[in-house]
Amino acid sequence: MVPAEKDELRYPVEGQFFVNRTRDGGKAVEALTKGLPAAPAYDLVYRHALEFDGSGEQLAMRSITGSLWMREDQGDSWELITGHLPPIYCVRWG
Predict the structure, then answer these.
(1) How far apart are CA 29 and CA 12, in angstroms?
(2) What is d(CA 7, CA 26) in angstroms, rounded to the nearest whole number?
């Protein structure tokens, strides 16, 4: 999950771009930031733009501001693949 302010504002909570991960149904949540933009950041990710493959190891995330990140470590760290794409609202593994 990538937290954002309410729909009317459309930017990350307090300008901090991170991915929340839980491994226990939400009892504990980790904020993953390694490789993601530092604050202030204004990337926004719609719910269908963060996807993992069938193994759960590879993740892809796409922002509406033109950035694409991928990782093969369950999101422990992220690698910016490109920051120059048009808005894409959905990411899927083929």
Answers:
(1) 17
(2) 22
